Amino acid sequence: MPVPLIRSTAPLGRCSDAPTERRAANGGAVGRRQEWMMGGTTPEAPRRDAQGTRRMLLEAASALFAERGYERATVRDIAERAGVNQALLFRYFGSKKALFGEVVSHDGQEQLHTTPPRELFETALRGMLGHGDRTREDRALATLLRSVGSGDEIGTAVRDMGDDYARVLASLSSAEDRGLRADLALSWMLGIGLMRVVVGKESLAEADPDEVCALVTGALATLLEDLPVTRFGDPHTTHSADLAR
């Protein structure tokens, strides 16, 4: 006796819809991953990771450039301190020189933009005299000092940053030769930093930063009349113009 055929009432192709949808969804996810790996659209989480990696490289480079200078701070050491593969340094910055330029620009400009002009000289001087951990901004001039003579591009970055500091210091004087006065003040500060940071002069290395700042700012009273003068052992500061009277 023939077995009767049972016809399905479901629409044709319904049974294969779920597997097809799963395959499409999986294919889309794979496609998105492949697109991200090929440098296309980046998911939100990897984008945050990239920003974090870039920041860690900048912080590591800032510290090592300040400690060793441009030449002695190697790409491998920077990546190792940041805890990342050194290939990522080239991926995010292109070259060691470009990384140095960004470090100098960020650290120096950050100090210039966040420090009131009347406090810049002492803040920068303390950054070179300070002991222990310092902020990235406080290391700006130490980075420059340790990297002088490392090539034309590096020398240009050093000169540009020095010019920026000198322009701010010039605003502390109303004299016609305020540009010269600012250059003299900056030269003295950088000379002190050179002896402290690069040469490692023992008397400066062991000196109390408060005493050094008091002596230096007091002597500069005749150059920059609006420069605040710190008296050693006195919590108050004196106006340079008052000392000059």
UniProtKB/TrEMBL annotation:
Keywords assigned by UniProt, alphabetized: DNA-binding, Transcription, Transcription regulation
A Pfam short name: TetR_N
DNA-binding region extent: 74-93
Region (Disordered), start-end ranges: 11-32
One function term, GO molecular function aspect: transcription cis-regulatory region binding
Stretches assigned to the HTH tetR-type domain: 51-111
Name under which the protein is recorded: Putative TetR-family transcriptional regulator
